[in-house]
Amino acid sequence: MKTACEACGLIIDIEDDSEGYTLVCPRCSNVVKGRSSMLHSLVFSLSAVFLMFPAMLYPFLKIRINDSMLTATLFESVAALNSEGYVPAGIAVFLTAFLIPLLYLLLISYVSLEAVSGLRLPFSEPLAHFIHKLHRWHMVDVFLVGILVSVVKLVDMADVSFGIGFYLLSAICFFLITAEIYYDSKVFWRRYD
Ligand SMILES: [Zn+2]
Question: What is the pLDDT of residues 44-86, one digit of tens each?
């Protein structure tokens, strides 16, 4: 059986096709992953899914002006954008910072689970295709940078601090990127050869 190095494209022969292998590319030293990488992908994507709901419910920013404390959660931000008339912006934030990342993580978990367990789960083939379409549309990292920019802008005007939601979002971002690094669609598709 053969596989391709993701970094340099070199075609490498695999003697053991049990998919539990880990190879080092002889040309560029990139680690070519096997089924074990899908287990990592499953663990990190599920961890991010579990953090998603508390991250949306706890405030990511706390702003103290005079004696009153304002807090902002993601859902409150979306509602505020909608009520101010910025409905497309509200919808874009809701989709790219919550709904699409959640769907993307659930799909990665589902396809990784199939690759790890060896089961044939329903609709896994079209869902594995769909992962690649979604992958450019999750923007938790962009949202996180947006929060940092607003803190920098507000810090001279008010007493601004990060809330629990910010730290949870940071953890989600880390888990999501790590799940993406370990997710190896070749391991999934090889089973359908
Ligand atoms: Zn290589």
Answer: 999 999 999 899 899 988 888 878 888 889 899 999 999 999 9
The pLDDT of residue 36 is above 80: no
193: in domain: no
Q: How far is the CA of 31 from the centre of ligand 1 (A)?
A: 8
Tell me which amino acid residue 178 is.
Answer: T
Domain span at residue 161 reads 38-183
What is the whole-number distance in angstroms between the Cα of residue 22 and the centre of ligand 1? 13
Q: Which helix (H) or strand (E) holds 11?
A: strand 11-13
**Amino acid identity, position 102:** L
With respect to residue 191, please indicate whether it lies within any of the assigned structural domains. Answer: no
Could you tell me the distance, in angstroms and rounded to a whole number, from the CA of residue 69 to the centre of ligand 1? 53
More confident residue, 154 or 22: 154
Is 108 domain-assigned?
A: yes
Residue 10 CA, ligand 1 centroid: distance in Å: 6
Helix (H) or strand (E) holding 30: none
Around 125, how many Cα atoms within 13 Å sit in the side-chain half-sphere? 6
Dist. CA 105 → ligand 1 center (Å): 27
75 within some domain: yes
Query: How many domains are there within the chain?
Result: 1
**How many angstroms does the Cα of residue 71 sit away from the middle of ligand 1?**
48
